[in-house]
Amino acid sequence: MSQTRREFLRTTAIASVGGAIALSPRGARSAEPVDGPRSPAARKKNVLFLVFDDMRPALGCFGHPLVKSPNIDRLAKTGMVFERTYCQQAVCAPSRASMLTGRRPDTTKIYDLETHIRTTMPDVVTLQQHFRSNGYFTEGIGKVNHPRLEDAPSYSVPHRNAEGGNWVTPENLKLQKEGGKVAGDTYDSEPSGPRTMRANAFESADLPDEAFIDGKMTQMAIESLGRVAPRATAASASERQPFFLSLGFRKPHLPFSAPSQYWALYDRATIPLPYPKAPTNVPDVALVNWLELRTFSGIPDVGPCSDDMTRELIHAYYACMSFVDAQVGKILAELDRLDLRKDTIIVLWSDHGVKLGEHGMWSKHTNFEPDTHVPLIIADPDYAAGSRTRALAESVDLYPTLAELCGLPPVEGLEGTSLVPLMVDPTRRWKSAAFSQYPRPGNIMGYSMRTDRYRYNEWVDRATREVKARELYDMTNDPECHVNLAPNDDQASLVAQLHGQLMAGWQAARP
Ligand SMILES: [Ca+2]
Predict the structure, then answer these.
(1) pLDDT in tens, 53-87
(2) How confident is the model at residue 22 (pLDDT cuts 50, 70, 90)?
(3) Is 92 a catalytic residue?
(4) What CATH code is carried by the domain that includes residue 171?
(5) pTM of the prediction?
(6) Cα(253) to centroid of ligand 1, in Å?
(7) Which SS3 state, helix, strand or coil, does residue 45 take?
C-alpha cells in the first residue's frame, strides 16, 4: 500500500470517529435551518439537479487525496455532504429508474438497460413529473434517464441532448469507423445494445471544453437558466414560476475523454495502484469479467491490465472528474450572475460508482462498495452550509427529500425516506442499513446490505428463494474488502443476525 493510500484511509477513519459532524461556515456546530422553513406563501425554491454518470465519490469534499474538484468542493461548503449514500443497483438505467420513481428495483422491475418505466409502471408519477404537476417548469438536458429511456411526462418541454459522440480525436474517430473493437452482444449482465465499434478507452485532446459533449451540455444548461430566470424571479406571484432543471453529464463514464488541460492536473507516477485481488473466499457469482472496459481498443481481452495501463486509466478518470468539476463551476457562476442561488436547491448525485482496478476488476455491475457508493450533495439555501453526515442514505431517498424541501405534497408508494431531518440534525439516529441489488444470469439476484459496520450479501435463486452464496465484509477492519468472512464458522451467529436484517428489508431499516 502506498503512503498516499494509507494516509487516505487514516483520514477517512479519523473523519468517522466522531460520527456525523455539522459545521457551519463559521465553524460552529450548527444544523438549524438558517432562516427556518419557508412559509407556504414564500417564493418556491428552484431545483438544479446535477446528475453524473459512473462518478464514485472521488472528490476533495469526500476526502479524496488526489482528485482536484475545487468547484464541487465549493458547492459542498454551501450544503450538506452525505458521506455514505448507496445506489439501489449499480448500473445506469435501473439506478436512475429507481431514483426518479422513488421505488426500488424489485418494485420498478427495471433491472436492464432497455425497459422503459412506462412499460412496468405506466401511471407512476416521477420526481420531475411531481414538480411539474405542482406548478414547476421542468426541463431535462442530457443523460437524466438512460439514453432512449427519457420520459416525456416528466418534462414541460421536450428533453434535449447535445450533439456529439464519445471521441473527438482523429485517431479515435478513425478507430471508431474502422479497426476498433466491435462491442460484444453482451457484457456482464447487460442486455444487448447496438453493435458499435469501440475506439480507445481514454483520450486527451488539446481542445476547448465545448468540443466535448459535456462542455456543450453545460452551455445548453447555461442558456436554459437564462431563459427560466425571469419567470423564477418575477416580482408578481401570478407571473412567477419556479424551475426544476435536470442536467445529466456523460462523464466520468467510459471512454475517459477530457481536454488535455485536465490531464495536466495530475502526476501519473503519484497515483497509487489499487489492491488487485478478489476477496479471499469470494463466490464467483459476485465477480464480473469487466467486459465493458474490455470492449475498448487497447484493453486486453483476457487477464489483468498492466500496472502502467491501470495508472493511465485512473489518470484518465481523474481528468474526467476535473473536467466535469469545471463544468459545475461554470453553472454555479451563472446561477450567481442571475442571482438565483438564494432561491435554488442544488443537488449533485451519480447513478453509481465504479471499480478502478479494485478487486482486479473495472467498471460497475457488482454489489461491491466502489460500485454502490455514490456521491450526494444537497445545497439548500435554507439549511446550514458546510455540514456533513455519516448517516446511511440511499438514492431512493432523493424524491421524498426534494418534495419536502420544496413544500410539495407527499406521494404515496415512495420507498425512500426524506433526508430533511438529517439536514436539521446530522447526528440523529438514522437508517440501520442501505440496500442494493444486482441480478445475474440464471435467475439469480444478489441482495446487498450495508450497515454501519458490515456489508452483507446473499445471492438468491429467485424461483426457489434458495441462498446460493453469501458474503460478509467487515468494513471497519477490512475497508477494502480483502476477505469474505461469511464461510467462517466463528461468524455464524453474525451471519444469522444479518440474514434476519436483510430479510426484514428496507421497511425495517427506516429511522
Ligand atoms: Ca452509469
Answers:
(1) 999 999 999 999 999 999 999 999 999 999 999 99
(2) very low
(3) yes
(4) 3.40.720.10
(5) 0.91
(6) 7
(7) coil
